[in-house]
Amino acid sequence: xxxxLAYDLGxxxxxxxxxxxxxxxxxxxELHRFGNDPVAVGDRLQWDIxxxxxxxxxxxxxxxxxxETPASLAIDxxxxxxxxxGRGGELLGNPYHYRDHHTDGVMERLKASLTTxxxxxxxxxxxxxxxxxxxxxxxxxxxxxxxxxxxRFLMIPDLLRYFLTGEMHNEFSNATTTQLYNPLDGGWDRxxxxxxxxxxxxxxxxxxxxxxxxxxRASLMDELGIGAIPVYAAAEHDTGSAVAAVPAxxxxxxxxxxxxxxxxGTEVDRPIINELAQELNFTNEGGAYGTFRLLKNIxxxxxxxxxxxxxxxxxxxxxxxxxxxxxEKEPAFGALIExxxxxxxxxxxxxxxxxxxxxxxxxxxxxSPGAIVRCILESLALKYRYVLELTERLSGKTFSGxxxxxxxxxxxxxCQWSANALGKPVWxxxxxxxxxxxxxxxxxxxxxxxxxxxxxxxxxxSFPVVNYEPQERQLWEExxxxxxxxxxx
Length: 489
Ligand code: LFR
Fold this sequence. Notes:
- The protein is of the alpha+beta class.
- It has 19 helices and 22 strands.
- The strands form seven sheets. The chain has a seven-stranded mixed sheet, sandwiched between helices. Strands 3-2-1-6 form a four-stranded mixed sheet. Strands 8-7-9 form a three-stranded antiparallel sheet.
- The protein starts with a strand and ends with a helix.
- Beta-L-fructofuranose is lined by residues 10-11, 78-80, 98, 237-239, 259-261, 263, 297.
- Residues 10-11, 78-80, 98, 237-239, 259-261, 263, 297 line the site of beta-L-fructofuranose (LFR).
- This is Rhamnulokinase.
């Protein structure tokens, strides 16, 4: 059985995995792993997109040197960010990072001028200040030369795929995250585009996950000394790929895709766009095979990653396992935060911000790294409980437990505390959710798997799922009450 290749790019690292399907069992092999370090230049925070493309090529080279000829490849990545292509097909500037400050205040202004109701009813997408719509509006407000010279809009995987193949296509799952795509009409929302001063001509036809969208270009084959490789569109939004890989056996399941972000929700057949969804600020992101992800973003392990960087800058280096071990030794529920407070969104000194949050809510601020990590992880687990309750309320479903997928599940303490907070079991696995979702969409497109449910079954049979049963129920019930009181949720 020939291998196929999945590139999964996260906000802090990327990986290339080779997958093989043998007797309905998936085998994966990590071909290449690399850091993804955004670069601050002056006031701007940007992605090092050419470095990412270099790493994509490195993986192709590694495949060749290992004697592998992948039968196809696809790329998924974080959402909302994009590059603009100018005359002659050149990329204009480096894509901005969604945590850049150029969108500050833009969402509030557009909500007031266009109305919240209009934006939500046309897109079904949650209000996050970094959504593409606000990034493009910010460029327009700033009379950016990037926008003046732009002829095409490509999101990160579209762009990298364009570098690979020379062909430009906009992929569906990622397109929906822009808050500029109308899932009811099934196309880009021209009215919203015109309202933010961006020409609809930049936006191309939208291709579905599983579409073959070219092959690697001749110049790249020459450069690397390799043959042609067909290129597919996966569910190119990493969360879309992660949910495609949830090893659920029944339709009504709840998931948490756990990485830099924690994305919690359920899969639905059609977007739920109503007053309650708008009020609770849930999203309806497009997925593979006509599915939608009714979910909510939770700030996730970003706060921990960014705290670790702050300690590193102060000359104290800790690994994640070290930090988790330190947290475990601290007393329970010393201090709690609302992880989704806007003060935690941008890069910076998280330990100080956490102390500031605690001081302003009348709590004793955690000082040591262990106490800070305990505060972050307990607060996340309690926020999961809150968002799962909202998901049940909005979807009308009741969940018997929670599927957790993604790199964050390697943190066993977080999984256990999540089960404790929910009072329901957590089923953790697989770790490489997004890359597996990417692989199975390619196999379905090639007729190797029949559909998404068969794919989920095969994933379930191929990778371990760790079961965490809830413990210390009373303690966590009380903590949940304290969390709701403190955060005002
Ligand atoms: C997760 C993710 C989220 C999206 C955020 C920003 O990696 O794709 O789904 O809201 O990154 O793009």
